[in-house]
Amino acid sequence: MHSVDANGAHIPSIGLGTWTLRGDQCADLVQAAIETGYRHIDTAAMYKNEDDVGRGIARAGVPRDELFVTTKVWPTDLAAADFRRSAEQSLDRLGLEQVDLLLIHWPNPAIRLSETIGALEAALKDGLTRNIGVSNFPTALLADAMSLAGHSLSANQVEYHPKLDQSKVLAACRAAGMAMVSYCPLGRGLDILHEPAVAEAAAKHGRTPGQIVLRWHVQQPGVIAIPRTTRRERLAENLDVFGFELTEAEMHAISALQAANNRICDFEFSPVWDG
Ligand SMILES: NC(=O)c1ccc[n+]([C@@H]2O[C@H](COP(=O)([O-])OP(=O)(O)OC[C@H]3O[C@@H](n4cnc5c(N)ncnc54)[C@H](OP(=O)(O)O)[C@@H]3O)[C@@H](O)[C@H]2O)c1
To answer: Is the CB of 227 under 6 A from ligand 1?
Structure first.
C-alpha cells in the first residue's frame, strides 16, 4: 500500500471515508474494504458509527499494526477534560486500545487552542493515539497550532477536490512535513466526474472518472484521499489508482477546475478560509 510519511506517521494514501455510514451497512463495508486491501479507515465521534467501524475492523481480523485508523474530537469537546473523555469514548466504541491518528475535527475559537493542543499532546503521550493532527485548519490557524505543537502534528484533514483550490494549505502542510488528507475527494455532489478534463483522461487511460480524480489527489506529493462509498463494488475501484500515471498536462487540466472554488463543507462555525 502506498503511503505518505508525515512527521513520523506512515499514512496509507487511500483511506475509506465513513461519514453517513451506519449500522450493519457500515460494519459490512469496513470489513469488505479491509478484505479488499484498504488499510486506512476514517471515522469521527460525530459520525456516530465508531462502534460499527470497530465491528468491521474486528471481523476483518487483520493484524492491528497493519491498519491505520483515524478518529476526531468534535469542536464542542475541545476543553481538556472533554477532549480526553471524547477520545477515551471513541476508543471504547472502536474496541481499540489506541487509534493511529487523533484529530481536532474543527477549530473552536471559544476554547483556547493552547488548551486543546495540550490535550492532544497528552493523548499522544499517554498512548491513546500513535499520531496527532488537526482538521479544517486554514493556514493562519495551522501556524498557531504548529507554534504550539511543532513537528508532532502529522496531518491536516481538509476539503480538497478538483473544484477547490487548497494550494496555500497544501504548501503549509508540506513546509511543516505534514500530510494533507483530502476529504470530499470526489467532490461529493459536484459534477467533477463529468468534467471533460476528467472524462478525457478516463477514456485515455481506460479508467473510471472516479479513479482519475483519486489519482489526481495521490499524485500530488503529501496528499492522501479518503473517498466514501456505500457500494461494495466501488471499494476496489477507488483503491486501484496506483497502476497508472496522469501526464503533467492532464494534472494541469484537472487542477484548472479549481477556479470554480466550490466549497461543500462550510458552516456558521467554519473558520476564515484561505482566499
Ligand atoms: N474532517 C471533516 O470535517 C470531514 C468533512 C467531510 C467528510 N470527511 C471525511 O471524508 C470522507 C469523504 O468525503 P465525503 O464522504 O463527504 O465525499 P466523497 O468521498 O467526495 O464523495 C462520496 C460520494 O461519491 C460517490 N462515489 C464514491 N466512489 C465513487 C466512484 N468511484 N465513482 C462515482 N461516484 C463515487 C459516493 O456514492 P456511492 O455511495 O453511491 O458510491 C458518494 O455519494 C467522509 O466519508 C469522511 O470520512 C471529513
So the answer is: yes
Integer Cα distance of 234 and 230 in angstroms: 8
**CA 159 centroid distance within chain:** 9
Give the CA distances from residue 61 to residues 2, 17, 19, 27, in Å, rounded to whole numbers and listed in that order: 21, 19, 22, 13
Point out the catalytic residue in the list 38, 47, 160, 183. 47
Whether residue 265 lies inside any domain: the answer is no
Whether residue 129 has its Cβ less than 6 Å from ligand 1: no
Q: Is residue 270, in this structure, part of any structural domain at all?
A: no
Buried residues in 124-155 as b, exposed as e (16+ CB within 10 A): beeebbbbbbbbbbbbebbeebbebbeebbbb
**pLDDT 10s digits, 127-139:** 999 999 999 999 9
Its domain, for residue 31, covers 3-260
Is 98 a member of any domain?
A: yes
Could you tell me the distance, in angstroms and rounded to a whole number, from the CA of residue 22 to the centre of ligand 1?
14
CB 107 near ligand 1, within 6 Å: no
State how beta strands 9-12 and 3-6 pair. antiparallel
Catalytic (active site) residue 183? no
Q: What is the CATH number for 85?
A: 3.20.20.100
Q: Is the beta carbon of 184 within 6 A of some atom in ligand 1?
A: yes
Distance CA 23, CA 76 (A): 25
- Give the chain's domain count: 1
Q: Max CA-CA distance within the chain?
A: 54
Rounded to two decimals, the pTM is 0.98
pLDDT tens per residue across span 163-189: 999 999 999 999 999 999 999 999 996
